[in-house]
Amino acid sequence: xxxxxxxxxxxxxxxxxxxxxxxxxxxxxxxxxxxxxxxxxxxxxxxxxxxxxxxxxxxxxxxxxxxxxxxxxxxxxxxxxxxxxxxxxxxxxxxxxxxxxxxxxxxxxxxxxxxxxxxxxxxxxxxxxxxxxxxxxxxxxxxxxxxxxxxxxxxxxxxxxxxxxxxxxxxxxxxxxxxxxxxxxxxxxxxxxxxxxxxxxxxxxxxxxxxxxxxxxxxxxxxxxxxxxxxxxxxxxxxxxxxxxxxxxxxxxxxxxxxxxxxxxxxxxxxxxxxxxxxxxxxxxxxxxxxxxxxxxxxxxxxxxxxxxxxxxxxxxxxxxxxxxxxxxxxxxxxxxxxxxxxx
Length: 344
Ligand SMILES: NC(=O)c1ccc[n+]([C@@H]2O[C@H](COP(=O)([O-])OP(=O)(O)OC[C@H]3O[C@@H](n4cnc5c(N)ncnc54)[C@H](OP(=O)(O)O)[C@@H]3O)[C@@H](O)[C@H]2O)c1
What we know:
Elements: E1 3-8, H1 13-24, E2 29-36, E3 44-47, E4 50-53, E5 55-56, E6 67-70, H2 74-86, E7 90-93, H3 109-112, E8 124-126, H4 130-146, E9 148-157, H5 163-178, H6 210-222, E10 228-235, E11 242-250, H7 256-265, E12 269-271, H8 283-286, E13 292-299, E14 306-313, H9 317-333, H10 340-343
Parallel strand pairs: 1-2, 1-6, 2-5, 6-7, 7-8, 9-10, 12-13
Antiparallel strand pairs: 3-4, 9-11, 11-14, 13-14
Helix pairs in contact: 1-9, 4-6, 4-9
The structure holds NADP nicotinamide-adenine-dinucleotide phosphate (NAP).
InterPro entries: Asp_semialdehyde_DH (IPR012080), Asp_semialdehyde_DH_beta (IPR005986), NAD(P)-bd_dom_sf (IPR036291), Semialdehyde_DH_NAD-bd (IPR000534), Semialdhyde_DH_dimer_dom (IPR012280)
Organism: Rhodoblastus sphagnicola
GO molecular function, one term: protein dimerization activity
């Protein structure tokens, strides 16, 4: 007997990807329900070879639902996750609403699946920010081997990280440039077509942006509070996949060959690292894929025990939908969740 799963935000970038991934991975669901706002009542979304008609979140009853995969933004999650969780339906949330709550595990299954043990305190599990998810998948095996002291990361984040409106804006602006139309910016603070923007999310008092702060705080919570991390997050005119230039300083000596061999064996990682023209991954190639790709691994001689690499992953998959489904799978594999139907 399988689980009943609700996808909340099913018409969005992440929600649609969740439905695809549930079907692709043959998630043990007896029933999948698609939910969104009142704007989308009756909108059709695909789940494998089935078509689901979206229902309205506000009028939906979660009493017989086992898992809610939430990707409807922070405000909706703040209001709805506790209500859904109170109906004994475990919430796996993609927004930042619950990530820093000490009673809510923040989980990337390849890195800290053990943290799931505490999920019943609130019945909510948080998915990290997209740029953090791929980064910690790469850092975890290196931290285990060489002990990370400090990380410097610059991100090149795609417009799909800002939802479907972000993708529409890049498309509309690119078209407008080609037909010499007026370029309008609504979603992003400046023009994104043929440009890039060194601001993601709002500014904090210390001059960092909230996206940069999230990478620091979430890496500490998921991997190790002792790791120092500084980030510069940049939006680039790419539709899907986030890229990161990463410099790491370790306690122990490290060579590029050792790091490459460790990363080759690491769960969720694929190394593409030929020191020749084209011998690396680009965001276009990573789109639609599950792996966190690592390229350009090299020693950084400007610090003691330094390493530099390039990290790319599909932000809608490992950065959001895939990670959420993997969390649900981990709950099942660890026997932390039984279908309500079976328990009845
Ligand atoms: N995109 C990424 O790379 C990424 C990565 C990690 C986390 N996230 C997080 O995932 C969430 C969704 O992101 P997205 O990229 O999928 O955004 P999106 O494409 O803009 O989709 C938003 C979804 O939320 C639904 N929604 C909005 N208001 C609602 C309401 N009041 N009640 C019910 N549903 C409502 C929308 O439904 P309607 O179509 O009916 O409006 C839509 O299905 C956000 O919290 C985001 O921060 C995104």
